[in-house]
Design goal:
Length: 147
């Protein structure tokens, strides 16, 4: 799986966050970053990379996803169907459909949302590393609404 991001950029991001740059971690990181607006499960990522890395274990996938998320390099989103992972975007809201599992990122970079985060952090001299705001409900397709 070839990443759309230069390898030196991924290596630098990992080094800046104190993470070793193993071949499998690089491939996993690249796969999450290249998922764009999709939010993948650990199983999705395992299946996508297991052909390229026959010795890849599910434990390696889970451990690396945890390390990348804890470092703030990827977003971990809890859904009714389990954890999903995606690239860290500017502050946004995740609309999570509890029927079909779809996830839509909305209000990406909205100045009002960014203002709320800034004000909330300032109340306790807090420095946010990541922000995850999710709204669970039914998407347009699942409630039968026309586009």
């Amino acid at each position: 799986m070839k990443s759309s991001r230069p390898a030196h950029e991924l290596l630098e991001l990992l080094a800046d966050h104190g993470l070793a740059a193993t071949t499998q971690r690089l491939a996993l990181f690249a796969a999450v970053l290249d998922s764009h607006d999709r939010h993948l499960s650990a199983e999705d990522l395992y299946r996508a990379l297991s052909e390229q890395f026959p010795t890849l274990s599910r434990a390696t996938v889970y451990n690396n996803l945890a390390a990348l998320a804890n470092a703030g390099l990827i977003e971990k989103l809890e859904t009714p169907d389990g954890s999903r992972y995606g690239p860290v975007a500017r502050p946004h809201v995740n609309l999570v459909c509890t029927a079909c599992g779809s996830i839509a990122d909305v209000l990406v970079g909205d100045p009002d949302l960014e203002g709320i985060i800034t004000r909330a952090a300032a109340t306790d001299h807090f420095v946010p590393r990541s922000v995850s705001l999710s709204i669970n409900g039914l998407c347009r397709a699942c409630i039968g609404q026309p586009a």
